[in-house]
Each structure stands twice: as structure tokens, then as C-alpha cells.
């Protein structure tokens, strides 16, 4: 059931003793849909789209720059699994280590997930949630499924790409300045343990290279 409030922006729905309050805050180039806290664990929403648009975003994606026509899951997923690791071990045991070998990346695997996207038609959609979110970019609509009721959904409109980017900049907030020590030398990336790290460090220092930091990405994910 739906009940429209007097101010024209609040709607109430109830089903099986559950309720959801929605508030629409609209301005000239911005629409924010606020949701009240709810025990619902799914939200399905369909937004109109353009057939001839290009879609970008959803955080770090590896396979396609233009996401139109595809489905993207906004969720951090490691590029490792039991089956790929087993195949890797078997392949290296039989054929040896091949440094040029590149494993395939799946669409849903990403290290940086962001439930936001841009359109070439100069609009932006951002879902304020930490939950698993999927985007299905169909021809004439975009279907969004969130595994909770998000805090809000923001839609921004820009006069052009530059205007839209400036509005998105405000949406995410101003980033902190880069610390000064970053400019004092290179950030040395190493992998292979302490001995390898220190060996590379001293080799760089002896060569006269200034080092501001060491990024060592050793981890146990493959073991």
C-alpha cells in the first residue's frame, strides 16, 4: 500500500508489518532519493536509460570500458580461487613457470568496487551502500539490485562532461592533498620477501636513487 504525504515527497509502503519511508529531494540538476532504515534485505529499482549511450564506472573493471549491455556486480572479489590455483600449480609442474602467461579476468572480480556510474548522456548515478550491488545496463533501462535498503540514491545531471565531473567531485568530497614525502623519491615496489626487498632497496640506493617509500605486496593468497 502507498500513502502520499501532504508535502508531495514522502511515500509510505507496508507489507507484512514491514515499512519503508522514501523522501525525494529534487533540485534543478540533482535528485536524491533517501530511504528510511528498514528490515528489508533487497531493493530492486529500474531507471530509464538511453539505447545509444555509453556507460562507465562501477569502480575498477577489467574487461570492458563501456559497460552498456552488460551486468556488473559491485563487490570486492579476489582474483584467486581453489580451482585457478590448482590449475596454476599443475601447469607449472608440467610446463614450468611461464612469466608471460596471463590468466583470464572475470567481470565480477575487482579490487575496487564502487556502486556508481557515468553516462555519455551527461548524468551520474550513485548508490550509497556497502552491500552487494548489481547493475544490469539494458538498452532502455538500468536495473539495480541492492542487498539492503541503501541510505540514498543520487542522480546528477550535467550540462556537459566537464560540468558533470565537477558535480561528481562534490558528491565524493574533496580529496586530501598528497603528502609531501611522496615527492622525495620513488615508491619502490617489491615482492618476494624481506631479503629480496632489502636487496632491491640497497641496489637502488647505491645507484643514487632517492626512495620515499617501499610498497611490498607479499601476501599469502596463493598458498
Short description:
The protein is of the alpha+beta class. It is 17% helix and 34% strand.
Describe this structure in words.
- This protein has three helices and 14 strands.
- It has 223 residues and is an alpha+beta fold.
- The chain has an eight-stranded antiparallel β-sheet with strand order 1-2-3-4-12-9-8-6, with helices on one face. A four-stranded antiparallel β-sheet has the order 5-11-10-7, with no helix packed on it. A two-stranded parallel ribbon has the order 13-14.
- β8 and β9 form a beta hairpin.
- It is extended and about 65 Å long.
- The chain starts with a strand and ends in a 7-residue tail after the last strand.
- The model has no long low-confidence stretch (mean pLDDT 86).
Secondary structure topology:
Blueprint: E1 2-4, E2 10-15, E3 18-26, E4 30-35, E5 43-48, E6 55-57, E7 71-74, H1 82-95, E8 116-119, E9 123-128, E10 133-137, E11 141-146, E12 152-157, H2 161-172, E13 186-190, H3 194-206, E14 211-216
Parallel strand pairs: 13-14
Antiparallel strand pairs: 1-2, 2-3, 3-4, 4-12, 5-11, 6-8, 7-10, 8-9, 9-12, 10-11
